[in-house]
Amino acid sequence: MSMNRAWLFIGLGALVVIAAFALYSYLALERMPPPRIEVLPSSYDFGVIPYRAVEKSFTVRNAGGSPLKIMGISTSCGCTRAELEREELLPGEETELLVTFDPNLMEEHLTGRIYRVVYIKSNDPERPEVEIELWATLEEGDEG
Fold it and tell me: Could you tell me the pTM of the whole model?
């Protein structure tokens, strides 16, 4: 009978140790700083451009203390495309976002000042959606 009691105490002791470790781990995770997205530059002006595709590279960085997950990227127009190298960044890591603006893909032939936006959704609790503003001035001329 005393042997069974000993195993019971050992089992209960092990459960207490496991529960304490699980609680400590949970509390430690709660104290970790959240992910924080940074995009550089935050906007860009292509300037005066001919009716041709242009590209610009942006840097997406995790300036927070937890992994940053990019949940989605969209644009305000089908004439703008955004491609990300990596969708998950550990604290301090960065990746390239390549944005292409092609006026030939617009539904209408427009000239003059154009404004477009790239939207980045992430798990950053402070900024769940970041916008990159883009401008260009399209000049008359050959489409290509």
Answer: 0.77
